[in-house]
């Protein structure tokens, strides 16, 4: 019998069917048109912002004399100066504050704009020059003022997320454009209290939640060590500014590695303080659920080219006296800064340092393990005891998976969608987004068994962690997190370990786009956000030919994660390799001490001059 609608449906039913199909088609078309119109509006906003930044730079070039009046040799030296070095030449009258600032402004205009490395989102050159001229006048009256304030005369850069009067804090989102802050947040205010001169703001990823700095407003930032590699994220523009010597010191933020990953990719120094030593207040507030996570919270800290410099900036951010003098309207009523104090750990001459070469949920390339060994050897040469950390298998696994389990608990990228407000998500998030939207039944009983069947052990383990949870299960996992944190720190206590050395990341700087397929590499950093301990990142060496490029036991594998990691290691020679130093909560001073001792032996900056 020939199929026709008349044979199967009455006239009334046919009308109902056509009406239903028409309604669904109209809904789909309306939804498509609406999304298209929203994205087109956002595209226009992004283009307008880019054009305004270019115009601001062009007008500045035309309106100001950018000649420093210094010799080319001295300018080159200044680009590599520490904070102490800058203060010394100011005190010795070899340069003025304005001249030093112009050196870094010129450097930024030369290499950090959109036609080169693309590291900046806003410039504050005019206000910065006015402040520099004011400081030069103060020096003429009293040269000792240079040493009265921690950042007097120092050009400073800040991540785009920080609240800074007159500037957007976009988080790489078009919907946040042209909504400038009306006041300075805590961190910006503390920098200004220390007389730091904020002159530029740095790029980041859309939503500030991946380790490549790319968004639809400003585009992709490029790594000064190798333009084919990512700068890291989310404080990627900030780290690259330091590596490209466009700024003396800067600040970023970190919820899963966003200070330490860029530091590792760019071969610089950075530290994520523990939550107990700092406040969540001071960055722009993002919408709804994203700002409601209390298990894992964002940390704020410095990025620079030496341990001494990040120590100075951390002292500024922890300065209780300066904080008490800030307007009550911007203070955090739940927070009171605790000043840096090195007297407690200074009395202990010989330290006991643990080390972890790898986590078995993701094995790193040999270069990452070599860096850990070299850092340990440096500490041995200083007379310290080195011991290997041997965690129980279950505890090690829980440390590795707790972060994605908690962050993805909302299910379906809902908080991301809240903040995107209709803007198209960047490609780097697409696989994660799709993974979180797979129903838990399909993930548990179809996808996970298939991955296991086809030898995808790494994806199998992680696929079970990235789905939405009900409140009960979220609380169960929160309880696991508490017990896990306690067990890990208790292990360190029982073994009298002062600090631990671990790889800086799962691999060296990734190729552009690789964060889409290698999010698991961040387990080496997100672990320490979950445990909530201070964690510093510092450069040790660079990737060498041969064995450095291999992942032991994974040279030939059907595991897609390791296949992609091996592909990422192709042409990785010359990239910087960092380690992390972690210690107990509220022991930032111990982290800095260990980093300083390693730095004194390794001398990365002397052996491997910053590029570009």
From TrEMBL:
TM segment ranges: 16-34
Keywords noted in UniProt: Hydrolase, Membrane, Transmembrane, Transmembrane helix
GO molecular function: amidase activity; fatty acid amide hydrolase activity
Keyword Membrane tagged: yes
Domain Amidase span(s) in chain numbering: 115-592
Domain of life: Eukaryota
One BP term from GO: fatty acid catabolic process
Keyword Membrane: yes
Coiled coil region boundaries: none
Annotated Pfam families: Amidase
Listed PANTHER family: FATTY ACID AMIDE HYDROLASE
Family indicated by similarity: Belongs to the amidase family.
Name of protein: Amidase domain-containing protein
Species whose genome carries this gene: Paramecium primaurelia
Lineage: Eukaryota, Sar, Alveolata, Ciliophora, Intramacronucleata
